[in-house]
Amino acid sequence: MASGASLGAALLFMATTSAWAEDAKVVQADDPYFKQADATLQTILKLQKNTNRAKNVILFVGDGMGFSTVTAARIFEGQQRGVDGESNVLAWEGFPYLAASKTYSSDAQITDSAPSAVAMTAGVKTINDVMGLNHTAKLDSCEDQKTKQVTTLWEMAETLGMSTGAVTTARLTHATPRGDLCAYRQSRLGG
């Protein structure tokens, strides 16, 4: 399906902007990859927009699951089932609404868990080794601990009277769950 992704985007654009010509001859219409991309597009176009207010929000964090790792998992899982791994779709990739987050740090090519957690829970970048602060914070600065704090999803949710929590398959003090919780706790408790 990846090969049809950009074509699918173009088809989606044409279908939603009335640039679509019913009588246009599409030579590749019988190609199985084209058909698969078109079927996916038709499914997406039939989705009814969900305008309800969310009752719950769940942030799934697959630690280390960048695009290359997900692609490898998709191929492997498909091959294990005896199908075309490259065209395989993992279960969660079929969710109707998905998003990706760029969790890099603002000062290094290889980010650690702290700025990843800040990116996921506060929507901003920060530097490596800093938790719950914005990208202008300096390491070991007590002043920045007080003046460069960011507001996390957890803090926003609790301000609205919602409950928050964490479920993890790793120990709670492991890098990623700790990072998410520390970003929350630091902003909530002031350090």
Query: Distance N terminus to C terminus?
Result: 46 Å
Low-confidence stretches: 187-191
Structural class: mainly alpha
Strand content: under 5%
Describe this protein with a few key phrases.
EC 3.1.3.1, 191 residues, phosphoprotein, Alkaline phosphatase, mainly alpha, signal, Alkaline_phosphatase
Structure description:
- It is a single chain.
- The chain has helices spanning 5-16, 32-46, 67-80, 113-122, 142-147, 153-159, 175-189.
- The model is unreliable at 187-191 (pLDDT under 50).
- It folds into 2 domains: 2-48 and 59-94, no CATH class; 113-189, no CATH class.
- It is an all-alpha fold.
- Helix content is 41%, strand content 0%.
Topology, element by element:
Blueprint lengths: L4 H12 L15 H15 L20 H14 L32 H10 L19 H6 L5 H7 L15 H15 L2
EC number: 3.1.3.1
Pfam families: Alk_phosphatase
GO molecular function: alkaline phosphatase activity
Short description:
Belongs to the alkaline phosphatase family. Its EC number is 3.1.3.1. The chain has 191 residues and is mostly helical.
